[in-house]
Write a structure and sequence with these properties.
Elements: H1 10-16, E1 44-50, H2 54-57, H3 61-71, E2 76-82, H4 86-94, E3 113-117, H5 124-133, E4 149-153, E5 169-171, H6 175-191, H7 196-206, E6 210-211, E7 256-259, E8 261-262, H8 272-276, E9 281-282, H9 285-299, E10 303-307, H10 317-328, E11 334-336, H11 349-352, E12 361-366, H12 370-375, H13 382-394, E13 399-406, H14 413-429, H15 431-434, E14 439-446, H16 463-480, E15 485-489, H17 492-502, H18 508-517, H19 531-540, H20 545-549, H21 569-581
Parallel strand pairs: 1-2, 1-3, 3-4, 4-5, 7-10, 10-11, 12-13, 13-14, 14-15
Antiparallel strand pairs: 5-6, 8-9
């Protein structure tokens, strides 16, 4: 790699771009606590790209952590890049302005590394759009020695074959230590003017979590060649930003976010994160409070969010909440405690979290009956669910937000209709407390079988099944006159597309590229998603979107993701066989 020319575009952006876009605060940078170095004086420059809008990306804790880590390394600068909204993209293309970073307004192709956070399959077309807007060829094989290294991390790196031809390297697993090691390696080799291909080879040889698709033949996988996820062993002292950036524009989550534990003791058969983020690790109460205090004083945010896959499983949750309340309550700072698991412990939480705004308490129930919960390995008891709801009402909550999933193995029509019945019972439970009906907001998602989970071998239910399930739920609501229960349904078409892509192989790269060329972008946004664009792309390459979504894999079949970290295949099949026997 050679030293790159840094192309700064501030004058052009201020003159020809910012005056013409809606929401210019998305693109100006300069926020409180941003870190800006002189790129020309740095040994390595990194553009951290989030393939969605500023408002979404600035709420992503993982990106904030990596930004902080890289900028704390000597000679390394990291700057932020987000997907420009439709109006901004048009101006960039019409006026031939390359996509740029927020801090220095440097063109994307000026950086040594362009790194993406892959959090969802439906952001893939935005990745291609960002590269193209930055003047970078979207396929790795088409790039020159002067182009940046294109890398990715995040949850989708563990099932990245559909995106393999677009990236030079994937970082599997947890990034805190791995990204620093990779950056130092690239910096060192760049100073030696080592060719990019040789840098990638060295990374693949040195790090078991580094997946370089160009030199890794997934058809010749053996157990000995399987990659492993990077793991932060000392989670207590894992890096956490103590001065998070304070966004100019209103973002999805405006709060201090502190990760209190990593991993989940539950093994829900549909949850990729619970199987891929292991082992379970905890931060101490003292460390969490230290981080929360520092972030609060550096930002002024009025909410502290306690993040994890299952916050109720944090062993010192009562002590933690009590001490956080003791420090923050008189400062009018509330607590956000998501990811609550329904068990005997949960009924104690509403009283403890006295400073949480009482708009609603969120509980992921997943299935309306205990039999189905056993099948998905989430053995929740109805009595614990009702005890938790009763305790929430007594503590001042007026609403409950419930999450259910439809399309589970062993599911019946009665199970689907019981979602309404159970929700109505929870609404009526409040009458015993204050004589009023509770307000129940229910979100229904459609099962998307995920790689590295026991359900990864199963086919998704057909689209017609989900449409019929939605009708059953709404009909049952009318029959029971459950006006106090409001339903919100995930988009069925997007869930089907997510299933088709998520368990796909490298052949889907052509489909993704064609969909992008046909105009697919911001597929997670209602105003942009168009299934017909995707169906056309699948058909062009002789593939059936619905057939791929409903495809079942055989136990002895080589899976497109089994070489990409994750738990042992035999272990997952044991879970699957147990599920299918219930």
């Amino acid at each position: 790699m050679n030293k790159k020319e840094i192309k700064l575009l501030a004058d052009q952006i201020n003159r020809s771009f910012l005056p013409y876009v809606r929401g210019p605060s998305r693109y100006i940078g300069g926020e409180i606590n941003q870190i800006k170095k002189d790129l020309a004086k740095c040994d390595l420059t990194v553009a951290l790209c989030f393939p969605d809008t500023y408002e979404v990306g600035m709420s992503n804790t993982g990106m904030a952590i990596i930004y902080d880590i890289l900028n704390n390394l000597d000679g390394i600068a990291a700057e932020r890049v987000f997907a420009p909204w439709l109006d901004a993209e048009k101006i960039l293309r019409d006026k031939n302005i390359p996509l740029f970073s927020l801090e220095s307004k440097a063109s994307l192709d000026s950086f040594d590394i362009v790194g993406f956070s892959l959090t969802n399959e439906l952001c893939y077309t935005n990745v291609l759009n960002i590269l193209d807007l930055g003047g970078i060829n979207i396929r790795s094989a088409d790039r020159s020695e002067n182009d940046p290294l294109i890398i990715a991390g995040g949850g989708m790196a563990n099932c990245c074959e559909p995106m393999a031809v677009f990236f030079d390297l994937f970082l599997l697993g947890e990034g805190e230590e791995a990204v620093a090691e990779l950056a130092e390696l690239v910096k060192s080799e760049k100073q030696k003017e080592t060719p990019k291909k040789d840098i990638l080879t060295k990374a693949a040889e040195k790090f078991q979590w580094a997946y370089v698709p160009a030199i890794y033949n997934s058809k010749l996988i053996t157990q000995n060649s399987k990659l492993i996820n990077a793991v932060v062993k000392d989670f207590e002292n894992a890096p956490a930003p103590l001065k998070p950036i304070v966004p100019f524009a209103q973002t999805v989550h405006e709060r201090v976010s502190v990760e209190i534990m990593r991993g989940c003791p539950g093994r829900c058969c549909f949850c990729q994160a619970s199987f891929c983020r292991r082992p379970i690790r905890y931060r101490s109460v003292e460390k969490i409070i230290e981080i929360a205090k520092a972030c609060y004083h550096a930002t002024g945010f009025d909410t502290i969010g306690l993040l994890s896959l299952s916050t109720a499983d944090y062993p010192e949750i009562e002590e933690l909440i009590t001490k956080l309340n003791g420090y923050f309550q008189d400062k009018h700072v509330g607590l956000s405690v998501p990811s609550l698991r329904v068990d005997s412990q949960l009924k104690m939480l509403p009283e403890l979290v006295t400073s949480v705004r009482k708009a609603g308490m969120t509980i992921a129930v997943e299935a309306a009956g205990e039999r189905l919960r056993e099948i998905i390995n989430k053995p929740l008891k109805d009595e614990d669910l009702f005890a938790a709801a009763e305790s929430a009402y007594k503590a001042g909550w007026q609403k409950l937000k419930l999450y259910f999933m439809v399309g589970l193995p062993g599911e019946t029509e009665e199970d689907i209709k019981n979602i309404v019945n159970l929700s109505l019972q929870l609404a009526n439970l409040r009458k015993q407390i204050d004589g009023k009906l509770g307000q129940i907001n229910v979100t229904i998602s459609w099962l998307v079988p995920k790689p590295h989970t026991p359900f990864g071998w199963l086919g998704q239910k057909p689209m017609a099944y989900f449409e019929q399930a939605k009708k059953l739920i709404l009909d049952e609501k009318r029959n029971l006159r459950a006006k106090m229960v409001q339903f919100k349904f995930h988009d069925i078409e997007r869930s089907v597309l997510e299933s088709a892509i998520g368990r796909g192989d490298r052949n889907l790269s052509d489909v993704i590229e064609q969909a992008w060329k046909n105009g697919a972008k911001f597929d997670l946004w209602n105003e942009c998603f168009d299934l017909a664009v995707w169906q056309s792309a699948f058909e062009k390459f002789g593939l059936d979107l619905n057939a791929l979504a409903t495809r079942k894999f055989q136990p002895d079949e080589t899976l497109p993701w089994e070489h990409l970290g994750g738990p042992d295949k035999k272990y997952l099949l044991t879970h699957l066989n147990k599920t299918l026997s219930l």
